[in-house]
Amino acid sequence: MMSVNPDAVDAAFFDELRLHYSDDEVVELGAFIGFNLGYHTFFGTLKFYPLFSPDGRLVNQAESEKLYGAAPSSLGNAETAE
Amino acid sequence: MTHIAPLPKDAIADPELRALMAEAEALGVPDDLFARIVARAPEQAVPLMRALLISHNRGNVDHDLKEIIRILLARFANDKYFASLRSARARANGLTEQRIDDGCFAYEDDAKGFSAAEKCALRYADLMFLDANQVNKSFYDEMKLYWTEAQIMELGAFIAFHYGMQMFMRSLGARAPAEPA
Q1: What is the CATH number of the domain that holds B136?
Q2: How many domains, in total, are found in chain B?
Q3: Chain Cα centroid distance, residue B136
Q4: What span, in angstroms and rounded, lies between the C-alpha atoms of B100 and B77?
Q5: Do B3 and A14 touch (CB under 8 A)?
């Protein structure tokens, strides 16, 4: 929701988070999500493919592109990835 | 008041984090609210603060251009906290609010005086989270007319990291320092 519907991350949502996580853990999660939100979109523009196949093999970028598709999924192109 | 309360400043004892907070205070970005919040996750606080400062205040891309990009992104993210902060270094360099507004809203207008390189970098930031599909091979080819690959990576990482932290602070309900709760 931080990416696609940030207005929904409101006080009520934080109250729900607190049922399961401490405030310190919520900060850790929020910073982690923010970091990944930015970098996944950036890496998506670079056609930056995973170094490992789903079964854990080290693969080159050409093979990885075949495995993961011509348009890597990122928050910036989530619609095309679905 | 943010959804998660920041730690009191005097509760932060880590000398490395305090040194980064002092560096940030001198620059003006971020102010201590960001550090006092991320200090709740001590293992993350120092690297997050260091990355925020290094990506903004060092490197081989003009600091004033980065400051305009940072504010453009914060406004796009609707993050009132980071959008309200200003770099003292950029201000000392002569960066005005008018120039920032021009860079955010009218950089393609030739009358505003942005160079082709600056326009391309501002477009890079604009498109990254508006329509990342447009940041494709031909876009990077155009970027390479004006910027080295090292500078493009510096800009891309700066854009990605600052936007991510802006969305994080927005989610916490952080406001501009002078804005009433």
Answers
A1: 1.20.1290.10
A2: 1
A3: 23
A4: 16
A5: yes
